[in-house]
Amino acid sequence: MDRRLFITTAAAAAMAPSFARAQEKPEITRLELGFGLDPVFAPHILAMRKGWLRDAGFTDVNTKSFTSGALAGEALIADQIHLWTPGNLPPISMVQNGIPVVVLGSNAIAAAADHLVARKDANIRKPEDLYGIKIGLLAGSTASAMLFNIARRYNLDEKKLQAVNLPPPEQLAGLNSGNVQAMICWQPWGFNAVKAGGELIHTGTTSHFEANKGQPARVSATRSIFVASQDFVRKNPKATRALMAALVRGQRYAADPANRAEVIALVATETKQEPALVEAIWSQYDFNPAIDDAYVADMRSMSEFLVASGRMKTVQNPMEYTFTGAVGAADPSLVKVQGGMKL
User: Fold this and answer.
1) Rounded distance, CA 161 to CA 151, Å?
2) Is the Cα dihedral 57, 259, 108, 142 positive or negative?
3) CA geometry: angle at 247 spanning 301 and 41, to 5°?
């Protein structure tokens, strides 16, 4: 689905000094953004609706939505979109397969938004109860990594867990019909599953098993990240810096508690979600642009899952495919660990 957005909003308040260095005329004025209907796109929405992208020189900004991450990744390489904002697992796999993509930054820490929800009649009280049920998830997604981490944390035999490959809408339908007894997915599907009568068993950060109910238990390393093709960044260094400066500004605006009500209302309108839903899940996203040790740890965790599942041979240093120059141009203090990729 294409959505053309000609930005006509008047310029917001003057740019902060840390963003001034990005005010170079970009090599392109037309910008194509991969887009989705969930809160992680708050920085994109803010950058568009508040005129920050227009101020940066992008006078023609369009969004494109895709039915799968694979299609979005293909569109990125084909130069049909200039920025992709997926979970962190698919780009890591693409890099390992020699596909020339580069991570430009971290958008949102979204581990808390990953949910394992079961039917109440499945009677999931302890980790071992997962052996006796079918669990719907999208194979090869961050949900697969979460199930792997649940098995590792609670000493389960992952081979005995019955995962059923289903896209999110079919997971919810299957849970309601009883074709699967649990599902692992991101928002808003986890919220909708609980609302429909499901029982929350585990989030990416907190256990709801009886023995450790409510206790911190990190089983997700999911992050929303900014990804571009290497070719685009090499050809458009000024545009890359300008784009990332606007998005970092959007991240900071979204993360400011003073802007919560405004941003939630805007996200609800743009994504066509109920404001109550966005309000309910908003705190599960941490819009943090820092490239730091936590970023490295999450990316390595996803790599470890890919190695364990046979999709990669070795765990690659994530900084080898992370380009920190654009985020560093917006604010040098955000780069705690320097990227090794030079473009």
Assistant:
1) 9
2) negative
3) 70
Residue 180 lies in a domain: yes
Query: What is the band of 19 on the pLDDT scale with cuts at 50, 70, 90?
Result: very low
- The answer to whether the CB of 246 falls within 8 A of the CB of 240 is no
Please state the separation of Cα 146 from the chain's center in Å.
14
Query: Is residue 112 within 8 Å of 281, Cβ to Cβ?
Result: no
Residues 12 and 35 in one domain: yes
- Rg over alpha carbons for the chain, rounded to the nearest Å, is 20
Q: 10 Å Cβ neighbour count for 8?
A: 8
pLDDT at residue number 221: 97
How far is residue 228's CA from residue 230's CA, in Å, rounded to a whole number? Answer: 6
pLDDT tens for each residue of 83-98: 999 999 999 999 988 9
Nearest to 121 by CA among 191, 177, 190, 189: 177
Tokens coding 53: 């992208």
Q: DSSP per residue over 165-227, as a string?
A: E--HHHHHHHHHHTSSSEEEE-TTHHHHHHHTT-EEEEESSBB-SGGGTT-B------EEEEE
Q: Where is pLDDT greater, at 141 or 16?
A: 141
Q: Are 58 and 7 in contact (CB under 8 A)?
A: yes
Residue 6 — very low, low, confident or very high, per pLDDT cuts 50/70/90? very low
Place of tokens 């719907």: 136
Beta bridge partners of 315: none
Contact in structure between 210 and 299 (CB atoms under 8 Å): no
The verdict on residue 343 lying in a domain is no
Number of domains in the chain: 2
Polymer length of the chain: 343
Q: How confident is the prediction for the chain on average, in pLDDT?
A: 91
pLDDT of 16 over the 50 cut = no
Domain interval for residue 177: 112-212
